[in-house]
Amino acid sequence: MSKQFDVIVIGGGPGGYIAAIRAAQLGFNVACIDEWKNDKGGPAPGGTCTNVGCIPSKALLQSSEHFEHANKHFAEHGITATGVKMDVAKMIARKDTVVKQNNDGILYLFKKNKVSFFHGRGSFAKAVEGGYEIKVAGAAEETLTGKQIIIATGSNARALPGTPFDEELVLSNDGALRVGAVPKKLGLIGSGVIGLEMGSVWRRLGAEVTILEGLPTFLGAVDEQIAKEAKKAFDKQGLKIELGVKVGEIKTGKKGVSIAYTNAKGEAQALDVDKLIVSIGRVPNTIGLNTEAVGLALDERGAIVVDADCKTNLPGVWAVGDVVRGPMLAHKAEEEGVAVAERIAGQHGHVNFNTVPWVIYTSPEIAWVGRTEQQLKADGVKYKAGTFPFLANGRARALGDTTGMVKMLADAETDEILGVHIVGPQASELISEAVVAMEFKASSEDIARICHAHPSLSEATKEAALAVDKRTLNF
Q1: Catalytic residue at 454?
Q2: Is the pTM of this model over 0.85?
Q3: Alpha-carbon dihedral sign for residues 117, 121, 125, 126
Q4: pLDDT tens digits for 375-398?
Q5: Helix residue spans in 189-266 (DSSP H)
C-alpha cells in the first residue's frame, strides 16, 4: 500500500533537505528521497554540494593551503619547518571524513525534525486524486503518494562532446576530488569556479597546472577590475591560464591525455598532461524523473520550467535549485527550498536574486554581490565607485596577505549600494556585510558611518564606502 505524505521532496541536496526540514517544521508530514551512496552503499544525503562539490573541495583547499604555508610562508613568521611532505592519501581520507560528517548531520536533522527518509531514486509514476504517486527505486522498491511534490534533483557535470568522463584520466569535479597522487602535469578546460579551485589545490601540491579557457576574457561574470586583479595574483602563483582557446581533439593513452587546441592567435598548440579536469559548466539533472508520465514541462536546456515562485506547470509540483533557472549555487537552492515550504504553508516565502552572493574559494578569494561596473555601464545607470586595497589595511599586513581590494558601487543620485566586489583574504566572509546592507537598501554612507573593529579586514569595506564619495580615513 502506498505511504501517504503531505509533502514529498525528490532530492536531498541543499535545496531538497532544507525544503524537507522546513516543511516538517511547519507541521507537514514530509518524505525526502535521495539516491546518493557512500563507499559502503549507505545513504549520503547532501547532493553534489556535500559529496563532490562545495564541502570536499573546501577541505582539499584548506589542506593544500596549510601545505603551501608550511613550505613557503612559515619562515616569514620565524618558524622553521623542514622536510614538509604531503600525504595525499591522508588528505583525501580527511576530506572523506568531513563529507561523512555532513552526510550524518543531515540524517540526524531528518530524524530530529521527523522527516521520513527514503534511500533510492525517486520518479513520477502517475497523477492521482489530490496529488502524485512517486516510486522509490532503492534496495527495496516503495510507492509514496504526496499532495505536494518538491523536485530538487540538482545538476550534473557537463562533458565535452566526444570526450566522456572516465574519472581516471578525464575527470569531472567528482574525479578531481579523488586523485590519489599529485600529477606532474595537470590540465583543466574551463576557468570557472571548479577549474580555479581544483587547479589551485594541485598547483599548491606541486603540479604544473595549465587552464584552457574558451572565452577571451577571464572570469567574465566578475567585475572587470576585480578579475584583472585576481588574474595577476594567479599568474604570480604559477597558474598558467590561456584565454580565447578553441579545444580540438583530445586523446587518452597510457601516458596520459593529449589536448590539441588553437590559441587566441589561431595558432595550433598541443598540451600533454597526466590528467585532465573538464569544468565547462553543469546541466540540470532530470534523468530518471519520468517527467513524461505527468507532463512536467522542461525547457530547451532540460531544466524544469518554473515561475518566480518555483511553481511548475503542474498543480502542487514545485522545483528548486540547480534543476531550475538561475545561478547554480547551493545557498540559492537553500533559499528557494525554504521559500517553497513556506509558500505551501500559505506564507510568503522570499528569494531576492539581486542579493545572492557569489564566491570563488581560491587564494585570493573572490566574492561579489549585486551588479558589476560593466553591467551598470551597459544599463546606462549613473553610479559612483570606491575602491580600497588590502595593501593599506593593517590586519591584512599582519596576516601577511595584502593581495586585492574591496570595490563598492553606489547609485550616483540616491547613494544606494548597487554592488560590492572583493578579491583578497577572507572575501567569502566579508561579502556578507554587503549582502545585509543591500537587503536593507543601505547607502554607501551607511557603511561608512558604521563602526568597524580595528584592526580588521572589514575596515577595507568601510574605506571603500568612504571612497565612493572620495573620502578616506586611511587606517
Answers
A1: yes
A2: yes
A3: positive
A4: 999 999 999 999 999 999 999 999
A5: 193-204, 224-237
